From TrEMBL:
GO molecular function: phosphatidylglycerol-prolipoprotein diacylglyceryl transferase activity
Stated name of the protein: Phosphatidylglycerol--prolipoprotein diacylglyceryl transferase
Organism of origin: Halioglobus maricola
Pfam families associated with the record: LGT
InterPro entries in alphabetical order: Lgt
Encoding gene, per UniProt annotation: lgt
Amino acid sequence: MLPYPEIDPVAVALGPLKIHWYGLAYLTGIAAGWWLAMRRSRHSWSPVQRDQVDDLTFYVALGVVLGGRVGYTFLYGGQRLVEDPMWALRLWEGGMSFHGGFLGVLFAMYMFGRRHNIAFWKLMDFVAPFVPIGLGLGRLGNFIGQELWGRAADVPWAMVFPADPLQLARHPSQLYQFALEGVLLFSFLIWFSSRSRPTCAVSGMFSLGYGCVRFFSEFFREPDAHLGFQAFGWMTRGQMLCIPMIITGLVLLWVAYGRKQGATATEQN
């Protein structure tokens, strides 16, 4: 068993103002996405121009934060939302949903594309490879904040989280998700999107890839206490939400590669 490396979840405290590592993880992910978008916008195949990247980043950040919070309150809030509706506005208490953030980004990209006259799926193909950066850093924030820990385990690298009331040795599932949803998915999508691909292919690969790695990693993550297992006695809410993403990814890839080869030979996303 490995000792849990206790790190103060508050990175900076200035009087009553406290900046948590989780929040810094989101800011770092957005900044890294902005930097990569600036670099990729230089290419002739980019649907986004360099002078549009700042605006694009703002739209993405707004979609992530608002969508992630709204999604969490409705998908995971349960009885707490009914008893205390104002809790949905207290962002500093934590609680974000990837699937809600994903829908938020979809809507934000639709609005951005309309404003700048950029085709929606070309825009999504441009943005998709950057998303795993924020996902991976967010999981590190979960690890530091001692939240979303794993199921009880007897593996040599299991950890006892000080905040766990049961004090069980558990999978450090946040680190598994960091490696899968962050490092692995980012590396693959950067490689995949660096070559000429038909429209919708990169978006489809992201949706399929994330859905698969998240579905797998959920087997090591402790289900939310107030939700438990949702279906068949073993499926979690997160896994249920991944199924539509996997199906969507497969459909997008079918649409992308089902077109005539001649119509897509020169496309680059």
